[in-house]
Amino acid sequence: MKRFLTIALLFGFTLISSQLMAQKFGYIDSEYILNKHPDYKIVQQELEKLSNAWKKEAQDLDAEIKEMYVQLKAEEVLLTEEMYQKRLGEIWEKEKQSQEFSSRIFGINGQYFQKQAELLQPLQSKIYDAIERVSRKNNLAVLFDKASVPSGIIYTDPRHDYSEFVLDELGIEDNN
Predict the structure, then answer these.
(1) CB crowding 133-167: b at 16 or more within 10 Å, else e
(2) What is the spatial distance between Cα 77 and Cα 69, in angstroms, rounded to a whole number?
(3) 32 vs 165: CA distance, rounded Å
């Protein structure tokens, strides 16, 4: 009985290892693919335009706060303690508004990141679909993304790089 169990285990291990050897693996560099895609440049320009407008608005708020401090300092000797505290409270309120604005726009779930996700989603879907088609055409069991953090990929052999196939699938020529 022990011999039969040993033979069965060896047979099972042989089947599993032969199946693992038959698996094809590859990788892509999604950052490389994104940078080659012409739509990505358009998205980046639109995001930069929005970002610059929001940064200017934040800078204007900060300049207004600085001006309020300068005026307060200049008029400090003329103000009663009550008037001084009232003006100081107005400045603090303006600083709070500035911080809330920055957080609402550039915070973790801010409008900038929401807009970025909204603009990139269609492009990412196109790329994902192309990756899926390339994987199926080349019978790949696993396709890693070299650009993902942390990827865990320490070394890659260029002959297993399918990034160019994805670019071809998207109809993008490599013009360097």
Answers:
(1) ebbeeeebeebbbebeeeeeeeeeeeeebbbbbbb
(2) 14
(3) 12
151: tokens are 């990827």
CA separation for the pair 69, 59 (Å, rounded): 15
Q: Where are the domains of the chain?
A: 23-170
| Structure confidence at residue 174 (pLDDT) | 67
Residue 34 CA, distance from chain mean position: 11
Check residue 96 and give its pLDDT: 96
Strand partners, 144: 27
56: left (phi over 0), alpha (psi -120 to 50) or beta: alpha
Residue 159 banded pLDDT, cuts 50, 70, 90: confident
How buried is residue 33: exposed, middle or buried, by Cβ count under 10 Å (0-12/13-18/19+)?
buried
What CA–CA distance (Å, rounded) separates 46 from 119? Answer: 9
Please give the Cα distance from 40 to 101 (Å, whole number): 27
pTM for the structure as a whole? 0.67
